[in-house]
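Hey, quick one: can you model this chain's 3D structure?
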Amino acid sequence: MEESLRRRQAEHELRQSEVRFRALASAVPAPLIVERLSDGQVLFYNRRALAHFGYSAEEADRIHTLDLYAHPEERQQILREVEEQGLLEEREMEYLRKDGTTGWVCVNAAPLDFDGDPALVVCAVDITARKLAEQALQESEEKFRSVVENAPLGIHLFELQADGTLRLVGANPAADRILGIDNSQLLGRPIEEAFPATAASGLAAKFREVARGESELHNDEIEYQDERISGVYENHCFQIAPGRMASLFLDITERKRTEEKLVRDQALLKRLLDLNDRDRQLVAYEIHDGVVQDITGALLFLETARDVLTDDPPRAAKALDEALAQLRDGLVEARRMIDGLRPPVLSEAGLIPALENLATEAEQASGIRVTFHHDVRFGRLAPTIEMAVYRVIQEAITNIQRHSAATEAAIRLTQQGQSLTLEIRDNGRGFDPKTVSKKRFGLEGVRERARVLGGTSLIESQPEAGTRIVAQLPVYDVLE
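Sure thing. Here's the predicted structure for all 480 residues.
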C-alpha cells in the first residue's frame, strides 16, 4: 500500500514537472524542440519552432529532426558531442525550412528524459541575418583583396595603434614593382622605420591625421638623387576604417619628365625664336658696319673718279683702285658673314672642331695669337645649341679683333654636369663696362644669347687691363 502511494506521488510530480516544462518551453522566445535520441522523432515543439521552420500545427506530429538539417550528417556530430561533453553549447549550423530555403541558427542542446524516453532538448537562436552580413563582408573583403592584388596602383595599408604608432600592415604586388622593394619585409614596422623619408618630410604626421579621419591627402611626392629627380609618385590617402588608412600611389616619373621636357622645350623654342629675331638684327648691324660701309666707301671713290676723270686722270685712277679695294673688302666681309651664319665645319664635325677652326682663322686674319682649350665630355649637341655656343664665342672674338688692340686672346670651354662655361680673355686696351652703350651689338649679342639660352653672362674689363667674358649655359639635348 505504501509503495503504491509513493509511486502515485512520483507520477504526479513527474506530470507536474512536465507541465512546468511545457509551460516554460512554450514561453521561450526562440525555437525549441525535443527529439527522441533513438530515431530523431520530434516529441515536443513550441510555437516559435513551428513558425521558424515553416510547419503548421497539423504537420507537427510528422516532423522528423532530419527534415530540419541542411546537412543531415551534422546530427550524429551533435549527438557525439553531447555524449562526450554532457551538453552542446553555441554551435552554429545551417538549417532547412519546409519550403526548401535555408538559414542559420546557433544551437544549445542537453540530454533529457521525456515521458520516459531518452531525448535531447534543443534551443535554436536564428543568426541568419548575422551570417548573411558576415558572408557579404567576406565577399566584399575578397573582392577588395582581389582589386588590391591586381591593381596597377601601388597600395599600402596602415593601422594606427593606441600609442600613436602607425604600422604598415599590407602592400600589394604593384607596390613592390613600383618601389623596387619587397614590402613584405616591412610589414608590422612603424612608418618611420619602414620609410624613413616620411619622418623628415612630415608625411608620417599627415598619414596619422588620415588614419584618424581628420583629413585626406593628395600630393605628388618627389624623390631626389644627386640633385636630380629620381622618382615622382602621385599619392592619394584616405581612411578605410577607424584607425586604418590606405595609401594609393602611382609612379608618374616619366609623365613628369615628359611634362618638364615639354615646358623646357617650349621655353627653349621661345628663346630660339627670340634669338633668331636677334640674329637678324645682328646680321643687319654687321652688314651696316661691314659690307655697307665698304660699298659706301667704294661709291665715294667712284664718284670722285667720275668727277676728276677728265681733269685729273691719275687721281681718278687712284680713286678707282681705292673703290676696287673697298669692294674686295666688302666681298670678303660678305663671305665671312655667310660662313658665320652656319660654318660648314660646325655642321660636319661639331662644336669643338668648329671652335678650333674659328681660333685659327681669327689668328690668321688679325695677327692676334688665339688659343683654345676645352674640357668637355659630349661629342655632339643639338644643332641649335652648338650654333648658339659658337656664335657667343664668335661674337666675343669679333669684338676683340675690332676694338681691343690685343696681341693675345684665349678661349676656354669646360663642362660641369649639365652646365657649360665659356671664357674668353684678351690682353687688349680694355674699357669701362659701365660706359659702353647697349648699341655695341657685339657685347650685347653675347649677353642676349646667354640669356635666351637660360644662362648667364659676365663681362669684366678695365682700361688698359684687358677683358674677360664668361658665359654659363645649360646643356640640353646631348646627342653623343
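One thing worth noting: The first strand starts at residue 32 and ends at 36.
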